[in-house]
Specification:
The protein has a single domain, classed as Metallo-dependent phosphatases (Purple Acid Phosphatase, chain A, domain 2, 4-Layer Sandwich), CATH 3.60.21. It has seven helices and twelve strands. Helix 3 packs parallel to helix 4 and helix 6 packs parallel to helix 7. The protein is globular. The two termini are about 30 Å apart.
Length: about 300
Amino acid sequence: MRVAHFSDLHLLSLDGVKKLQYMNKRWIGAMNLLSNRGRHYHTEAFDDMVVDLNAQNIDHIVCTGDITNLAFAQEFAFAKVRFDKLTLGPSNITVLPGNHDSYVAEGAHHYAEAFGDYYTPDADWAWPVPTDARREAGDNKDERAWPLVRVRGDLALIGLSTSRKTPWFTAWGRVGELQLERLRSVLKDPRLAGKVRMVAIHHPPAGPRAKSRIRGLRDFEAFAAVIKECGAEMIIHGHEHRNMFEQLPGPAGLVDVLGVPSGTYEANKPERTARYRIFEISNGRIIGQAMRVWHRSRSVFEHDSTQLIATA
């Protein structure tokens, strides 16, 4: 089977947004949009990616967050129209939230309202509603949903949420104790024996960037401990807008951790130009991977022979 991974689309729509809605952390993001982001992230790149994905015989698609810029309801609605053009449909497309999707507290509600069908777990993997104490321990907005588990053929996709409202000038994430406990139980579950257990997360969980107190993963050590105990066949993430490679120890050897560049970026920087990755899975193993890169002048994605890996 073929699994596609993209991330960090930052799809922008400010139609109908009122000035008062910027009277919070959003004003920082708005300044960034005016000075940088708004010029370098292109909706047309995702539109071209949708066309390409629909032609690539993909079996499952994973987006690891940052669908929006400022977590406006208008942005989520704008993004959903484009996701709905993917022929696989929500049951075979998994969309996780990123830090930009919780730029303000209301972002979590807008994300759930627009993309609820894109992160619905399999019926036999739904979590019970936790007690108030466990909800606090998990430190996440909707503990009933995470980690998300979807089993498709040889793939067992396990999606985590690290998305949360953070203080101004920060973009860090956290998995939380409850999610980590559940992740441990999923990775050990005998129902997943022989499957490719692919853990999807927004923030990088390994390497120097994971350790950043400003934009890293606050509980990366606890996450690494779960992987060391239980293993996984692959870990994928976004957030850094770069093609990144790290590894974490597992019980049977090292586990690859792969980050993907933004799916919409283009600013005359070849190593960061919009890309997405395709994994080839067969007989419970990942047997290959390839990257596809956007060519803005021709409005197409094509095979990327460079496989440029960013330094940490």
